[in-house]
Amino acid sequence: MGTVDEERLVRLVARGDRAAFEELYRRTAPWMAVRLRRRCADEQIVAEVMQETYLAVWRAAGAFAGSSVGGTAVGWLWTIAARRLVDAFRRRAHHAEPPAAAAPPDAAPAAEEEALAGTVGGDVGDALRDLAPELRHVLQALVLDGLSVRETAVLLGLPEGTVKTRARRARIAMRKALA
């Protein structure tokens, strides 16, 4: 495949190219699994979400490839995975106890946060890094992952009111940092 980017791979997957799908999976699955595990400690749920995500990618690649809407293929993949994770949490909560939440982040920055810092640079990146982790996680889910308040609440295991409050506090802190 060479240095074909993820957007091109998705366009090839939309045409039914299995080799492109395998390459897209090879490139994105390790990152996706780490990101999902940071949000859910239950390996069975992570495995189910991974399977559902890539099945959805195979089936819906044409929707991404044919859209004129901005955004990256990796962002599109994560949006699918995050929504599948929320759905899994809802299914489990409906049938039994909710799954265990992921362990709180260690003091060392996670690979995901390092990637975020690399993607969002300058003053905005600095302001994001300076946010308290609980505010940054809410902002990540709402803004970067594109989830609703309700989906963010389910994903992070918080009441919706707490998500709204943290989002407001994060916006205020970001405005102050960027002023």
TrEMBL record:
Region (Disordered): 96-115
Composition-biased stretches (Low complexity): 98-110
Ranges where the RNA polymerase sigma factor 70 region 4 type domain occurs: 124-173
Domain of life: Bacteria
The keyword Transcription belongs to this UniProt entry's keyword annotation: yes
Domain RNA polymerase sigma-70 region, chain residue ranges per copy: 24-93
InterPro entries noted in UniProt: RNA_pol_sigma-70-like, RNA_pol_sigma-70_dom, RNA_pol_sigma70_r2, RNA_pol_sigma70_r4_t2, RNA_pol_sigma_r2, RNA_pol_sigma_r3/r4-like, WH-like_DNA-bd_sf
A family per Pfam: Sigma70_r2
Keyword terms: Sigma factor, Transcription, Transcription regulation
Tagged with keyword Transcription regulation: yes
Protein family according to the UniProt entry: Belongs to the sigma-70 factor family. ECF subfamily.
Name of the protein described by the UniProt record: RNA polymerase sigma factor
Organism per entry: Streptomyces albiaxialis
